[in-house]
Amino acid sequence: MYAKLFVSFWKIGAFTIGGGYVMIPLMEQEIVDRRKWLSREEFLDYLSLSQAMPGVFAVNMATCIGRRLGGFRGVVAAVAGNIMMPVALILMLAVFFRYFRDNVVVERIFMGLRPAVVALIAAPVFRMAKSAKVCWSNCWIPVVAALLIWLLGVSPVWVILAAIAGGLLYGFVAERHKKEGGSL
DSSP string spanning the chain? Predict the structure, then answer.
C-alpha cells in the first residue's frame, strides 16, 4: 500500500507544472477515479481542509490523504512521493538558471504554459462548484468575495470571517423557519 501511495503521489508531483492547485485534477483522477481510495465527497472534504491549513497546499493534501490511507507511514510515503520530483527540479533549475534565465526561447515556453495552467485550475473549480451546489441563486457569493479581494483589496481573512458569520446566520434563520413550519 505504501509503495502504491508513494508512486501515485510521485506521479502527481512529477507531472504537475504550475503549483499546488494545478495538481487537483491529477489528484482527483488518481485518488478518486483510478485508485478509488476516496469518494469524490471525501476528496472535496480533504481539499477544503488542505486549503484551510497553513503550509503548501500539495503537501497538505498528501498529508491528509496519506494519513487517511496509511496512518503515519502513509503520510511519509505520500509526502515524500509528492515533493521528490519538484525538489529535484528546483535544485537543478537553481544550479542551471543563470545559464538560461535570459534565453528568449525559455521565456516564451513559460509564457505559453500560462494559459494551460489557468485552464488546469479552472476545470476543478467548476467541478467543485457543481459538487458544492453553487447555482444561479448563490453564485454571487464567490463572485462578490473575489471582487472584494481583487478590486478593493479586502483581506481574505475578513472575507472568510464574513462568510462564516453569514453561513451561521443563514443556518440559524433557516432552522428557526423550519421549527415554525416555514421554509426558506
Answer: -HHHHHHHHHHHHHT--S-GGGHHHHHIIIIIIIS--S-HHHHHHHHHHHHHSSS-HHHHHHHHHHHHHHHHHHHHHHHHHHHHHHHHHHHHHHHHHHHHTT-HHHHHHHHHHHHHHHHHHHHHHHHHHHHTT--TTTTHHHHHHHHHHHTS---HHHHHHHHHHHHHHHHHHHHHHHHTT---
Is the CB of residue 62 less than 8 Å from the CB of residue 79?
yes
pLDDT of residue 122: 81
Return the minimum-mean-pLDDT range out of 28-32, 96-100, 109-113, 165-169.
Answer: 96-100
Q: What is the pLDDT of residue 109?
A: 85
Dihedral Cα 17, 22, 27, 28, nearest 10 deg: -150
pLDDT of the residue at 18? 66
Would you tell me how many other CB atoms lie within 10 Å of the CB of residue 60? 20
Supply 164's cell numbers.
462564516
Residue with cell 481539499: 47
pLDDT, mean over the chain: 88
